Amino acid sequence: LHASQTRASYNANERQRGKLYNWTEVNTPEIIFMSEKLKIPYPLFVILLIDFLLYGQTLFFDYTNYDDNLLIKNNLPFISDISNIFEAFSNSVFFNLADMFYRPILTVWLILNAQLGGSDLFIYHFSSILLHCLAVYLVFSLLTKLNYSRDLSIFLSLLFLVHPALIQAVAWIPGVGDVLTTIFSLSSFIVFLNFL
């Protein structure tokens, strides 16, 4: 009994100092969605809110005629066919044999977006913002996994979210390749830390 009381008081003290992160104790605002309550962890709620406030205006951006017209407009017949997903792994992103700019995950992302939006860029921009939210949340998750306090992890994640060097990765459709790279890199590092 004494050992369990000591461990419980140790965990309580460590949580107060921000050393341990217990996902069940996160303040979760309740959001009503389709008449059922959907609970979103507080850090994710803040990330979604600020990300959409900051990048929401990009939802209505048009073609920039700088690569996105080549990747979407000119290749719409290819990216509109979901059966081309496997062919994306054998071609350049520009489908030009002279240019081997190999980005198969970007091409797969374009194919999946084309299934939902065709040539309408709203879907591409919306999924880009969602992916950026996921990348920021993974930054938060990694920092908490590295035993940074929750407040510091949220602050650093939000700094990552609003940093001006990342604008083109969200606002410019072909820039989503950077966000996808971040997601896969952070995810693999978090899985590695879980493995240790």
Any descriptors?
196 residues, mainly alpha, two-stranded antiparallel sheet, 9 helices, globular
Q: What count of helical segments does DSSP give?
A: 9
Low-pLDDT parts are 18-26, 31-35
Q: What is the number of E strands?
A: 2
Rg, Cα atoms, Å: 21 Å
End-to-end distance: 30 Å
In round numbers, the mean pLDDT is 83
- The assigned structural class equals mainly alpha
Secondary-structure element order, N to C: HEEHHHHHHHH
* Strand order in the largest sheet: 1-2
Helix content: 55-70%
Biggest sheet overview: 2 strands, antiparallel
* Shape verdict: globular
User: How large is the share of residues in beta strands?
Assistant: under 5%
Give a nutshell description of this structure.
The chain is mainly α. Helix content is 59%, strand content 4%.
What does this structure look like?
There is one protein chain. The chain is mainly alpha-helical and 196 residues long. The protein contains nine helices and two strands; from the N terminus they run αββαααααααα. It has a two-stranded antiparallel sheet. Helix 5 crosses helix 6. It starts with a helix and ends with a helix. The relative contact order is 0.12.
List the helices and strands and how they pair.
Blueprint: H1 2-16, E1 30-33, E2 36-39, H2 42-55, H3 68-73, H4 76-79, H5 104-117, H6 121-145, H7 150-162, H8 167-171, H9 176-195
Antiparallel strand pairs: 1-2
